[in-house]
Amino acid sequence: xxxxxxxxxxxxxxxxxxxxxxxxxxxxxxxxxxxxxxxxxxxxxxxxxxxxxxxxx
Length: 57
Known about the structure:
By secondary structure, the protein is an alpha+beta fold. Helix content is 21%, strand content 18%. This is Conserved Putative membrane protein.
């Protein structure tokens, strides 16, 4: 499995009508391309998660 290290801001989206919130990372460039290829190839996914999200640690 390929590893990627990035330093990017963590940003929070909050529902305008409730208390729900999601946290996101915006990753661009070569790291984003590599993550996309690994996810599309099923390298990190045990089946499909959520809306095609990849787990990060």
